[in-house]
Amino acid sequence: MIMIPPLLLNLIKRFEGQRLKAYQCPAGVWTIGYGHTGNDVFKDLVITEQKAESLH
């Protein structure tokens, strides 16, 4: 996993916002948490706040 400096992580959180239910971004990509994308994100996926924090 890539280590993201705390200041950068806070900036990402501020602009992305937190979503605990997966949604499709304007590009049609399934996204969850603070902008997390990947093969592990799919329609109707729901995560906890703790999980969102760990997906950076």
Structural account:
It catalyses: Hydrolysis of (1->4)-beta-linkages between N-acetylmuramic acid and N-acetyl-D-glucosamine residues in a peptidoglycan and between N-acetyl-D-glucosamine residues in chitodextrins. This is Lysozyme. GO terms for molecular function: lysozyme activity. The protein is α+β, with helices and mostly antiparallel strands and 56 residues long. Helix content is 30%, strand content 21%. The protein is built from 2 helices and 3 strands; from the N terminus they run H-E-E-E-H. A 3-stranded antiparallel β-sheet has the order 1-2-3. Strand 1 and strand 2 form a beta hairpin. The model has no long low-confidence stretch (mean pLDDT 93).
Blueprint (SSEs and pairs):
Blueprint: H1 6-16, E1 19-24, E2 30-33, E3 36-37, H2 49-54
Antiparallel strand pairs: 1-2, 2-3
Give a quick set of tags describing it.
alpha+beta; three-stranded antiparallel β-sheet; globular
